[in-house]
Amino acid sequence: MADGKIKVSKMNTDGKESIVRIASRGDVIGHRSIFTDQFYSATATALEDSSVCFIDEKYIIKLVKEQPSVACNLISLSGRDLGAAENKVASFSKKNVRERVPEFFLLLKESHGVKDEKGHWRITLKLSREEMASIVGTATETLIRFISELRDEGIIDQEGKEVTILDEEKLIKFANLGYW
Fold first, then answer.
1. More confident residue, 93 or 82
2. Cα–Cα distances in angstroms (integers) from residue 7 to residues 61, 62, 67, 68, 161, in the given order
3. Which CATH number fits domain 5-93: 3.40.1410.10, 1.20.1250.20, 1.10.357.10, 2.60.120.10?
4. Of 22, 50, 116, 126, which is most buried, counting CB atoms within 10 Å of its CB?
5. What is the model's pLDDT at position 2?
6. What does the pLDDT look like over 136-149, one tens digit per residue?
7. Using CA atoms, how far apart are residues 156 and 134, in angstroms rounded to an integer?
């Protein structure tokens, strides 16, 4: 991807969208299906003006055969994506929603955060509440309730779709992350 932010999602059996990840500048989408017999069944939706590059599968296969470093880069990408998926599964299976919401904001801070003049982290990715709830794996109403709690505690601030982390240490405690 050349520029922008792309939402990668899948529909579950009851027609509800589940956001798999948010791709940004330099990320690759759909690479898993190149080397497997699996059809890539996710949907990619631009969240903002974006520029994407399409590289034909035959060209990639040719490059991999001719330049092993390309294969190493694709393996590295696949490993990174697999690690992120494993972390998400572990978080979903071991954490309750009250812990996943703050962890979600901390992850967004790492990938889409910008420090403002006061030293607070402003999350530049503007997601709807429905999209955030989909990523966290909860109902929109539950997400809104926990965001309100974090705001009432002075941990985050939210204006429209923009979230600012005011107290990162408290957010880490709420997320039950002992390793940050």
1. 82
2. 26, 29, 30, 30, 16
3. 2.60.120.10
4. 22
5. 78
6. 989 999 999 999 99
7. 20
Rounded to 5 degrees, what angle do the CA atoms 174, 140, 129 make? 85
DSSP letter at 178?
A: S
CATH architecture of the domain with residue range 96-174: Orthogonal Bundle (1.10)
Average pLDDT of the chain is: 87
* Assigned token pair, 124: 């530049």
CB-based contacts of 21, cutoff 8 Å, min separation 6: 8, 81, 84
Sign of CA dihedral 174, 175, 176, 179: negative
**Bridge partners (DSSP) listed for residue 17:** 11
Side chain identity, residue 173: K
pTM of the model: 0.72
